[in-house]
Amino acid sequence: MSLQDTPRAERLHIGLYGARNSGKSSLINALTGQKTALVSDVAGTTTDPVYKAMELFGVGPVVFIDTAGYDDEGELGAQRVEKTKEAARRTDIALLLISNEAEIEKAAEWKKRFSEAKTPVLLLLSQCDTKEDGGRALAKKIKAVVGEFPLCVSAENGEGIEAIRKMILEKLPEDYEAVSLTGDLVEPGDTVLLVMPQDIQAPKGRLIFPQVQTIRDLLDRSCVVISVTTEKLDAALEALREPPSLIITDSQAFPVVYAKKPKGSRLTSFSVLMAHYKGDIPYFAKSVENLENLPKNARILIAEACTHNTIDGDIGRIKIPAKLRQLLGDGITVDVVAGADFPDDLTPYDLVIHCGACMFNRRYVLSRVSQAKKQGVPMTNYGIILARFAGILDRIELPGK
Questions:
Q1: pTM of the predicted model, to two decimals?
Q2: Which residues are registered as beta bridge partners of 62?
Q3: What is the DSSP string of 14-73?
Q4: What is the predicted pLDDT for the residue at 60?
Q5: Which of 108, 144, 226, 351 is deepest in the core (most CB within 10 A)?
Q6: pLDDT per residue over 162-198, tens digit each?
Q7: Between helices 104-116 and 136-146, what is the axis angle to 10°?
Q8: How many angstroms separate the CA atoms of 396 and 401, rounded?
């Protein structure tokens, strides 16, 4: 896979935040050396956040998020600010721009917001080429309120642009690219058998992204990788001289694969791996411990990363709700949200069940986990709950746990 083919969810998300006309779009263009973002003197040119996948020299594959000014006004302006706040939850590194003294207090509020979310921030004094003293006086005022000196930058003459690239590398989150998809489950030379049903939900002629990502991760870790569909599992096991060290299956096939698993082989699923890679697997596992004890009128939220039409056998909209009603009765309520839709208040729910989130970056998934924890709401993942339904959660491998 080339850098250009890196999926958006796997790229470093760099968000630009500031008041209207603070120079966010111009700065993106200067950083990328392209006219990536629309630039205008009219305040509010950028409305909804714009996500642009790029290659940033010295950094690699990134996504720039060009956001609406957080000082936007009016009813539509308030909605745009909410979109900007949503983008902040996806941001790995924030570039916080200040262009004049009137913006300092608001910038301080957003600096605090990012600090509370543990999001690294680059504080920038933009449009320095327009300041009589190069921005020195304004930089001192910013230091007095925000607590640090900003880097003076200019998209017009290139001042500070190279310094931003270097600071992005310095500000990379400690866990960025540190989490392996297969975690501590494999060693070089291990034989790993992948069981990949190609059902109606699989894209025609292609593998779903978690399967592709798992194959690549295993190859990078010098494993021997064998892939089969569920109906060829017996043939694959017979063909192997020794049982595979690890079997990774689609979570929906847990019961079938577990029944045929050789005694010496360990078992997990693609969705369980994603729970570790994108989320908080200890919290997901703990959250299903008392599943059977949920109230008969429990309200449960199912959250999907991607939007799609419901089809027969849909895992999130049909199969999991059916399993929940089989376990808890017909008195429960199951709500489904997709994409960026996610309630600010989770307290009406007794349980949140999230998909593998292959379309989201890790920062965004962890922000949802943090929200659930703060509000005292149990949250789990498709793979974890399907293993619980199958009665084998304590017999499968959970990476990082």
A1: 0.78
A2: 12, 54
A3: EEEE-STTSSHHHHHHHHHTS--S---SSTT---S-EEEEEEETTTEEEEEEE---TT--
A4: 79
A5: 351
A6: 999 889 888 887 666 667 889 789 999 999 999 998 7
A7: 50
A8: 11
